[in-house]
């Protein structure tokens, strides 16, 4: 059964995820950085570095699609690649509104455009982007394979896809420490700050149920990506997955 944020509602996972992110959007950035001790920022930077070094010579994509862009932090990190255009898409209007404000304040709204859009029905033509990126988004998809397949469709031949997502540490004592933290401390802080009692219970539950490591790579390859690579971060608390679309 799908892991959803609001178990007592009979709406779809997609609707519940959008509702949850709308509800926590004012506190999302703050909670992200507090709950991860700021490591989420380093993970996004590392993922962009891996995108750059995914090809020889270093890859500098001119058009980038940031799926599940939320408040746009991954899109902002991708500016380091000096692209011509970054489009961020998300299903939560609340997250997008905060992201658009952020882009204006930083004076980058002509490069980063934030649009409403569903990862499983991307409003773009085939082969449109040099790179497709997504951080902490794929775990929330209603249908993971469908989302990844659509990401593959809009990547141009020769293009690269980078996925950054939470994963499950497997080694003692990180596995036990992380499990304790994510089941007790994280939901407590999340509930108090965001006032949404479900959102930060859904987070560890959805991470645990998510196929990570080699299991993710299998689905990534089924979606069409080749030369795939898994890079575990911080004892496996998060992972980067690189995939290529053959030229
Ligand atoms: C945890 S946030 C990540 C935001 C941002 N990428 C970051 O690194 O902070 C997950 C985002 O995925 C979005 N999302 C979930 N399912 C989606 C879908 N099917 N299509 C587009 N966005 C989706 C949510 O609305 C939310 O903004």
Automatic annotation (TrEMBL):
Keywords: Menaquinone biosynthesis, Methyltransferase, S-adenosyl-L-methionine, Transferase. It comes from the Bacteria. The gene is menG. Belongs to the class I-like SAM-binding methyltransferase superfamily. MenG/UbiE family. Methyltransferase required for the conversion of demethylmenaquinol (DMKH2) to menaquinol (MKH2). PROSITE patterns: SAM_MT_UBIE, UBIE_1. Its EC number is 2.1.1.163. It comes from Spirosoma telluris. PANTHER family: 2-METHOXY-6-POLYPRENYL-1,4-BENZOQUINOL METHYLASE, MITOCHONDRIAL (PTHR43591:SF24), METHYLTRANSFERASE (PTHR43591). The keyword S-adenosyl-L-methionine applies. S-adenosyl-L-methionine binds at residues 71, 90, 118-119, 135. Coiled coil: none annotated. Pathway: Quinol/quinone metabolism; menaquinone biosynthesis; menaquinol from 1,4-dihydroxy-2-naphthoate: step 2/2. GO terms for biological process: menaquinone biosynthetic process; methylation. It holds the Pfam family Ubie_methyltran. One of its GO terms (molecular function) is demethylmenaquinone methyltransferase activity. It catalyses: a 2-demethylmenaquinol + S-adenosyl-L-methionine = a menaquinol + S-adenosyl-L-homocysteine + H(+). This is Demethylmenaquinone methyltransferase.
